[in-house]
Each structure stands twice: as structure tokens, then as C-alpha cells.
Design a protein that fits this description.
Largest sheet: 7 strands, antiparallel
Number of domains: 2
CATH class of the largest domain: Alpha Beta
CATH superfamily of the largest domain: Naphthalene 1,2-dioxygenase Alpha Subunit, Chain A, domain 1
Strand order of the largest sheet: 10-16-15-14-13-12-11
CATH architecture of the largest domain: Alpha-Beta Complex
Number of strands: 16
């Protein structure tokens, strides 16, 4: 990312991001309060963002400091300001906090010790689905669909009607996870057939989530390990850009990266039709609106925590699709990443 302004769309809102002279990322509302032009079409001047329409200049805190058309001494209108947002760079992403809580009150960016582990090779990739982020997130941490949807990829190694063993759910302030053992995983296709060679394999799987839009998958098959750290970026009510860091401790040469990227994309395409078909688009706010079974305990924990956040006012209405001009009612548990 350079000093050139870049527009990011998330939660039906438009943001403009750029770097100042110190290399720090600045995030502002991408809408000039004068005539609504996008700052992302403008330019950066002296650490300020300049509107491309009438060259109004705004500081990184959103305050307008110059209106070229004004006569000297003309006061700048009080309404000539835009919202700014707290950002942090971590794990190769820019994280944006969309709300007005103090730093101490905000949900933390989750730990990712693998990012600094020299024994692990990492790759970044992303894909887009025409689905609500709550549906893509739940799909990412659902084990019981694997033997049904993914029969042409890694799911082929499961029994045709894989029974889910009982597992313990571990919850914390901003997330939860489960640990699952998969027995006799032996018939995988494509890339996975080179990994699961023994006549009988035991795979240890850990699935988890962090609020509001992050999932984590760890697959340990003894001879190697894969970790998927995934952020489900909600563009709008029916579009999600999923950004993923995948770590592995085998075939760590960069020459193998395209193989793993193609394998991951194939898995996503197997999910695509089903996830995009789900109705309603977002997971229901009421737990009783859909039926749950024991193997849904992780997604149920996510829904309960989401319900708690919504009850505290930490969310946007599904029909809120206009640009905001104040920070008074913004979602405060939403985060954004981009490379």
C-alpha cells in the first residue's frame, strides 16, 4: 500500500485508506461532505487527503483545513469534517475498527503465533462469495458437511456418512473452539492423497472462531500440519471477500504454493453453490429460527456470542446501506483486512 488513496468497501460503507509521510495508515470515510465525491479519486498532500472535485483538504483526524474557493478569512463550516477510524497493521493485514469505543474496550485482534514461526511456510490468498459473511464463517467451521459436499477433494477420505464424535466446546470472551479426531481418513484425492498414505490415518482437527468475522482451522495429520487463518470481510449484505493466510510445515518450497492455492480454491468452489443458496442471507438473530443438533455446538456458540453483541448495540441493521456521517451508531465489533 502506498500514499495513493485506496477505496475499501465494507459493511455497505466506503472507506479511503492511505499512508502518511511516516508510513502510517490513515482510514477515513470516503465521501466529501461538500458534494459527496470520493476521496479515493483524489490525492494526498502534506499528509492530508484532498477532494478531487473542489480540492477541499482534510487532515487525518477528518477535520477540513482548507477550502480553496473561500475568500481569505472565511471560516470553514463546522460540518466540514469526515469520520476517521482506528487502524492497526498486523499479520500482513490492515485492521480497521469501525466504531467509537476506546482502545481498551475494543475486541482484540486474535493471537496468531504461526505468523512468526520459521518452520511454517505461509501463503496469502482471497476469494469472493455472493453470501453473507455470517454464512461463510459458519461454513468454515462446520465439520459435518465435509463428507457430503467435499467428496471430490479432501472429503473423499471420510466415511460416506461420517458420524461426528462428541467433542468438548471451549469458549472464551471473544471466541471458541472445538477439537475433533477423525479416524480412518485414507481415501483422499488430489493433493491430499500424497499426505494421507497409511492404511489408517488419524487426523486431529481444531476449529475455532473469533468475533466478529474470523475463523481458524488447524489440521494435524502426524506427517504434517496445515493452519488456515481466515477473515470474512463483509462487503455488503450479500457479498463476502474471504482473506486467508495458510501455513504449512511440509512442501515448504514456494514452487508448491500454486498447488495449495488450487486445492483451496477447489474446496471453496465445492461450498459455493450451497453457501450462496442459504436463506435468509444472514444467520437468524433468534436461535430458534433454525434447528440445531449436537455437532452444531461451535456455530451455536458463535450465534450466542453474536446475539450478545447485537443486544449491546454492536451491529448494523441489514437494511443500513447508506453512507453514515457520524460515529454515533456504528458497528464496533467489525474488522477489515486487506493486503
Amino acid at each position: 500500500m502506498t500514499a495513493k488513496p485506496k477505496q475499501i468497501v465494507m459493511l455497505n460503507q466506503r472507506f479511503v485508506l492511505y499512508r502518511n509521510s511516516k508510513g502510517q495508515v490513515v482510514a477515513l470515510q470516503d465521501r466529501c461532505p461538500h458534494r459527496g465525491a470520493a476521496f479515493s479519486v483524489g490525492w494526498v498532500e502534506g499528509d492530508c487527503i484532498v477532494c478531487p472535485y473542489h480540492a477541499w483538504k482534510f487532515q487525518s483526524d477528518g477535520t477540513c483545513v482548507d477550502i480553496p474557493a473561500n475568500q481569505p478569512g472565511t471560516p470553514i463550516p463546522r460540518g466540514a469534517r469526515i469520520d476517521g477510524y482506528a487502524v492497526q497493521e498486523k499479520y500482513g493485514f490492515v485492521w480497521l475498527f469501525y466504531g467509537d469505543l476506546s482502545e481498551a474496550e475494543r475486541p482484540p485482534i486474535p493471537p496468531l503465533p504461526e505468523f512468526e514461526d520459521p518452520s511454517l511456510h505461509k501463503i496469502f490468498f482471497e476469494y469472493e462469495l455472493n453470501a453473507h459473511y455470517t454464512r461463510t464463517l459458519e461454513n468454515d467451521m462446520d465439520m459435518s458437511h465435509v463428507s457430503i459436499i467435499h467428496t471430490r477433494s479432501f472429503g473423499n477420505g471420510f466415511e460416506p456418512e461420517q458420524k461426528m464424535e462428541d467433542y468438548d466446546l471451549h469458549t472464551e470472551a471473544w471466541g471458541g473452539h472445538v477439537d475433533v479426531n477423525v479416524e480412518n481418513y485414507t481415501q483422499a484425492k488430489d493433493l491430499f492423497k500424497y499426505v494421507f498414505r497409511p492404511s489408517k490415518s488419524k487426523v486431529k482437527v481444531s476449529l475455532g472462531f473469533y468475533m466478529p468475522n474470523i475463523t481458524r482451522l488447524v489440521v494435524d495429520f502426524g506427517r504434517g500440519k496445515i493452519v488456515n487463518f481466515t477473515v470474512h470481510v463483509p462487503v455488503d449484505d450479500s457479498t463476502t471477500i474471504t482473506k486467508r493466510i495458510q501455513f504449512r510445515n511440509f512442501l515448504t518450497t514456494r514452487l508448491a504454493d500454486p498447488i495449495f492455492q488450487r486445492a483451496a480454491f477447489k474446496v471453496v468452489m465445492e461450498d459455493k453453490a450451497v453457501v450462496e443458496s442459504e436463506y435468509p442471507k444472514a444467520v437468524p438473530d433468534r436461535l430458534t429460527d433454525e434447528v440445531h443438533v449436537p455437532c452444531d455446538s461451535l456455530s451455536l456458540a458463535y450465534r450466542k456470542l453474536r446475539q450478545k453483541c447485537l443486544a449491546m448495540g454492536w451491529g448494523l441493521n441489514s437494511d443500513q446501506n447508506q453512507l453514515n456521517s457520524s460515529n454515533s451508531d456504528l458497528a464496533v465489533v467489525s474488522e477489515l483486512t486487506f493486503n
